[in-house]
Amino acid sequence: MDRKKIDNVISWSVKILFSLLFLLIVASVANVEITKKSPEEIASILKQQKEEYIKLSQGNPVNENLPDPWPAKMNKPYPEIELIDQDGNEFKLSSLKGKVVIVSFIDMSSPISQAQFGAALSGPFGFTTQVDKMVYTFDDVLRKELGGDFTLPHDDVVELGIIVYTQDGGQASVDDAKSWADHFDLSSEDGEIVAVPKKDIRGEESDKIITGFQLIDKNHILRVDSSGPNPKHNLRMTLVPLLPKLLR
To answer: Would you say residue 33 lies in a domain?
Structure first.
């Protein structure tokens, strides 16, 4: 193809793109006009559409449900999350202030998430067939590292698992929390809470903290982050030794 034909193709492509953009703008304005929005509401809608377009063009998910900041920042108050536990009780994460919280974010399809909650003993959950035998539960790590000097359950410690994804990648429900708790023999009476967020927090930011553990002190401050594929701290060398110290 000669240069002239190439230039013609590029020219027509640009014209088509601008035509489509014009039609989208006209459709948006027409839709706004039909719904009889005020000028302020129109401006707000157009601004929101622009922000969402920018996020999508950058490959970032649009999720307005995420706490701010998210993920939680080190040595800062933990962001608020509204949750529902395996017994159907609604609560806010901040309501656990006064206790030390070991929190883990769960993907129900992940062999690592399952292993961290006891799949080696209880067997794989749902349609997952593999058990990661190299991954231990938090209680097992605690016993191995502290040799029985400190064990769970403890009156001032809550082990909180928050389910972010179901096995098919969907948003988890209370039934999912109950099924997970039943399978792995977890009891809220022993401080073993399995919960689901009231609002959908799935997405790229939450993926950074799925599997592993975070440690929140009695003042609701994030002290150790051993979560996600790239943990900031070592579970055995940092989180476990600090846990009993936070209870003194």
So the answer is: yes
Residues 158 and 227 in one domain: yes
Total domains in the chain come to 2
Structural domain for 49, as ranges: 3-57
Residue after which a domain boundary falls, among 41, 57, 73: 57
Nearest to 212, CA basis, from 64, 85, 106:
106
Q: What's the rounded Cα separation, in Å, for the pair 134 and 142?
A: 15
* Per-residue pLDDT tens over the stretch 188-201: 999 999 999 999 99
Residues 15 and 9: their CA atoms lie apart, in Å, by 10
Query: What does DSSP say about strands 82-85 and 90-92: parallel, antiparallel, or unpaired?
Result: antiparallel
- Bridge partners, 222 (sequence order): 216
- Three-state SS for 53-121 is HHHHHCCCCCCCCCCCCCCCCCCCECCCCEEEECCCCEEEHHHHCCCEEEEEEEECCCHHHHHHCCHHH
Separation CA 102–CA 193 (nearest Å) = 10
0.90 surpassed by pTM? no
Q: Residues 159-214: pLDDT tens digits?
A: 999 999 999 999 999 999 999 999 999 999 999 999 999 999 999 999 999 999 99
Cα separation of 86 and 90, whole Å?
A: 10
